[in-house]
Write a structure and sequence with these properties.
alpha+beta, Lysozyme, Immunoglobulin-like, 11 helices, elongated
């Protein structure tokens, strides 16, 4: 046989040889490889060409697509073994070798092809390989044809084919947010329900690419296992599908903060593969951005329209692309054309003003309220002015369009006020309301219902204010004591990092001073919130202006994204972080503090008769006043050096030097949390005080079981950093103003719960209040919560109901004042001295019912939750509810 004859024989067998021998993308013609696969598997060449066009534009793309498919045939992970078996290739080769991938995909198509010789008969097989949506794209490509020169310089053409259009699909519903888009809902498992811009502002647009075909991205966001989504998906042809409502939070940026504030737009294509993005696609997407500018006031500039590659990594400062370090939309995205088009489109649309979230009203001083709000925005026209109105009284202030705060003075004491803020320009108006606030000379509170975190690295020594709205300013007219309390759910994403919360106070714009702090343990408890409570007392001078702030830090150097505050999710809502200041005459307050480390020396059998005073220097004394009640609180960081030992703290009182009487106690868990302080809080009310009697209050402690010395400790920190204070405070209040109840019983959760339904903890722990004048109620709940099953956190809430308006027989008639979560991720049988505080304005003459409610944080079986530490032989720690009417 001549050499030429041998060559012709080899050429005839080339397709079959290539189908068996793996050949890399770098040394093989894409067109020849498609011809080889089609011939070897007897699949029409246009089918192979159209499939590869839709998935890759005839380029070898090494990374998997958005739905996990690999190569130009987009073979899904769950089909790899079958495709490899049908083609005789090693499964790993299908991920790396062009000819093997094309051949295996063709073998898969042939396997699922039924009868028929026309191209239309292959549609079911294509749908089996890619899904129905992508199959539609493949057959659209067959009808239209395609051609391009690849990055390797190869010219490939798909000749238009005569393929019947088939039955037209049912028309998709249109988007309610942006009518040019179709509406196809993403799986609810892939985004968070919200009410933007009322709970979060919308001030960013994030540009992505799909890393796959248009249809594959849509299918992926419908897959509950994807755990990702975007608001819009735009095809290369300019088709638009909306999958998440703009009011909801799509999971697209790899950074929760950016997710909450942005709209995500996905674009069909690959970031690092040339020639995917088209003019039709740019124009369609720019129309979305322009509409968002008009409807939300998001500026059309590169500070607010960003790529996924511009999103910071929340866990590693200095890195970008979100937590996954994405690089899309990549170097082929034409930012200049896109931004110019979006700006031109936006300038042609109306530009009314927009106000985000809600106005925040704070009773900043006697007879005064300060209202703050986010700056009004408009797409391209200025905001002409702001009008803010206080009710009752219809008190109006007119301000410039740039204003973000206003202070109202001369308001009536013990009157409930609300405020509306209206922005206006020539295109229209926008209005937001405020929370209700009562003007009072004695009690001030601010609350954040957001998830808070330390976004930057923290050196373990620097305190950071994470939410400037959590400030209180007051200017007392007489010398007073301020009882300052902060209630916050602290947790960590990384074991070994504790979370510190501190109260800072400045006097007449002087330097800020740390007045009290507590630590929440994270040694073995990731994602396990600690219902932390920190309380301090400050002496205030008449005429001075004081600012109270809440700050966080880690206990040791920690990367950003380690320390968090606020339990819950965007779907369920986050537990409130609250700062409260209550002013009292100095004569009515007795307090003592130990800024040192304490440890329980010597053997202690843990029995109920084995309580030991922590420090005689922490005793406080009050002179009894007839008709008054002593409200007593203890606040300290408890921890252990040995797992399995819980730490008990109790408040004791003696009358005129008589025997000590226990008023209340709480337990801090140590089952899996050594060196993990618990910001414990214990409260009690002692009524029936007698004039002329002297009452002494003490803090005592013990282990929950027999323990040697050096196991139970109080006070977080070190000698070099200083220790968190252990504080005991007693306050005199008129008996009618302190309504308290408690029950020393063990409670087991009696219901199978879905994690969202609240049930009353125990009907005997209820309080009724009926003020004679409009007042503010500060309600505090205190319970030892624990679980016998790791993984279930325990939620505790205070609810109140107006008996003048409702029968109060259904929880739907109650208002939630506040809730906190106690972690159970790694802490079975480890009670958390959980505290929750809520504030409610009361109307004169109305009767209010307050109660404690609880639930698991996720779906849980009955008896997964427990309240009350101790045993039947040692007594159970009391579950208490105290309402102060101020």
């Amino acid at each position: 046989m001549s050499r030429r004859s041998i060559f012709l024989v080899l050429l005839a067998f080339l397709p079959a040889l290539l189908s068996v021998q793996g050949t890399s993308a770098a040394n093989l013609s894409f067109g020849v490889a498609m011809q080889s696969a089609a011939a070897a598997r007897q699949v029409p060449l246009p089918i192979v060409e159209a499939v590869a066009w839709v998935n890759s534009r005839w380029e070898w793309i090494p990374q998997p697509s958005v739905d996990g498919g690999v190569g130009p045939m987009n073979i899904h992970p769950y089909d790899l073994e079958l495709a490899a078996s049908l083609s005789g290739h090693d499964p790993a080769l299908l991920r790396t070798d062009l000819s093997a991938n094309l051949d295996a995909g063709a073998a898969f198509l042939a396997h699922y092809h039924g009868s028929g010789t026309d191209l239309a008969s292959w549609r079911p097989a294509v749908a089996m390989l890619l899904g129905d949506g992508a199959a539609t794209e493949v057959f659209d490509a067959l009808r239209s044809g395609a051609s391009r020169v690849t990055n390797e310089g190869e010219a490939i053409s798909l000749t238009p084919q005569s393929v019947p259009a088939g039955k037209a699909p049912a028309a998709l519903p249109r988007s309610g947010d942006y009518p040019p888009a179709n509406w196809v809902a993403a799986s609810p498992a892939n985004y968070s329900s919200a009410n933007r811009p009322h709970d979060w502002p919308i001030d960013l647009i994030v540009i992505h690419d799909t890393e796959g075909s248009y249809a594959s991205a849509i299918a992926e966001f419908q897959n509950p296992a994807a755990q990702s989504s975007a608001h819009f998906v735009v095809s290369t042809g300019g088709a638009i599908t909306q999958m998440v409502r703009e009011q909801d939070v799509a999971w697209h940026a790899g950074n929760w903060d950016y997710n909450t504030r942005s709209v995500g737009i996905e674009h069909e294509g690959y970031a690092w593969s040339c020639c995917w993005y088209t003019t039709a696609q740019y124009n369609a997407s720019a129309g979305i951005s322009a509409s968002i500018c008009s409807r939300f006031g998001v500026p059309m500039d590169r500070s607010h329209v960003i790529g996924h590659s511009d999103v910071p990594d929340p866990n590693n400062p200095g890195l970008y692309g979100g937590s996954g370090h994405h690089t899309d939309p990549g170097p082929y995205w034409n930012w200049s054309y896109y931004m110019a088009t979006a700006q031109a489109d936006a300038n042609a649309l109306p530009s009314p003003p927009h106000l985000m979230t809600y106005a925040h009203a704070v009773a900043s001083s006697p007879e005064a309220v300060t209202v703050t709000w986010l700056a009004a925005r408009s797409c391209h026209a200025p905001v002409d002015g702001i009008t803010i109105t206080a009710q009752p009284g219809n008190i109006v202030q007119s301000l410039p369009g740039t204003a973000t705060s206003a202070t109202f003075t001369g308001l009536q004491d013990r009157t409930n006020y609300t405020f509306t803020v209206t922005a206006h320009n020539g295109y229209g108006t926008d209005t937001i309301g405020s929370n209700q606030v009562q003007v009072t000379a004695t009690t001030f509170t601010v609350t954040s219902y957001s998830s808070l975190h330390l976004g930057q690295d923290n050196d373990g020594a620097t305190w950071v204010e994470v939410d400037p709205t959590l400030r209180i300013t007051t200017k007392p007219t007489v010398n007073q004591y301020a009882i300052v309390s902060a209630n916050i759910d602290l947790w960590t994403t990384r074991p070994g990092y504790n979370q510190d919360v501190g109260i800072f106070i400045s006097d007449n714009n002087g330097s800020e001073q740390l007045f009290g702090w507590k630590e929440s343990g994270g040694f073995a408890g990731t994602y396990s919130p600690n219902a932390a409570f920190v309380q301090t007392v400050a002496s205030l001078l008449a005429g001075h202006t004081y600012v109270f702030k809440l700050k966080l830090k880690s206990n040791i150097p920690a990367p950003g994204g380690t320390v968090y505050a606020g339990a819950g999710t965007a779907d369920t809502g986050f537990s409130p972080t609250r700062l409260t200041v209550h002013l009292l005459p100095p004569a009515d307050v007795a307090t003592s503090t130990g800024w040192r480390s304490y440890h329980l020396d010597g053997y202690n059998d843990g029995g109920f008769g084995s309580w030991v005073e922590i420090d005689p220097g922490l005793r406080v004394n009050l002179a009894g006043v007839a008709g008054e009640t002593a409200l007593v609180t203890g606040n300290l960081d408890l921890w252990t050096t040995h797992p399995g030992y819980n730490q008990d703290v109790g408040i004791f009182a003696s009358d005129n030097g008589g025997p000590d009487r226990q008023l209340a106690w709480k337990e801090s868990g140590g089952f899996a949390g050594t060196y993990s302080p618990n910001a414990a809080f214990v409260q009690a009310a002692l009524g029936g005080l007698q004039a002329g009697h002297n009452y002494t209050f003490k803090l005592k402690w013990k282990p929950n079981i027999a323990a040697g010395g050096g196991i139970v400790y109080a006070g977080a920190g070190t000698t070099s950093t200083g220790f968190s204070p252990t504080r005991l405070t007693a306050v005199l209040e008129p008996a009618a103003n302190v309504l308290a109840t408690s029950n020393s019983t063990h409670y087991g959760y009696p219901y199978d719960d879905d994690g969202s339904t609240w049930y009353e903890l125990v009907p005997t722990v209820r309080v009724n209040a009926r003020p004679g004048v409009s007042s503010i109620a500060v309600a505090s709940g205190n319970a030892d919560l624990w679980t016998a099953t790791a993984g279930y956190n325990q939620d505790l809430a205070i609810f109140a109901c107006d008996l003048n308006a409702y029968s109060c027989t259904s929880i739907s008639q109650y208002v939630e004042l506040g809730w906190k979560e106690s972690g159970g991720f790694a802490g079975t049988y480890s009670p958390n001295a959980a505290s929750v505080q809520g504030v409610l304005p009361l109307l004169a003459g109305h009767s209010y019912l307050f109660g404690l409610f609880w639930k698991p944080n996720i779906a849980a079986p009955a008896s997964a939750l427990n309240a009350g530490a101790g045993t039947s032989s040692t007594q159970f720690s009391p579950t208490s509810l105290v309402v102060e009417v101020t």
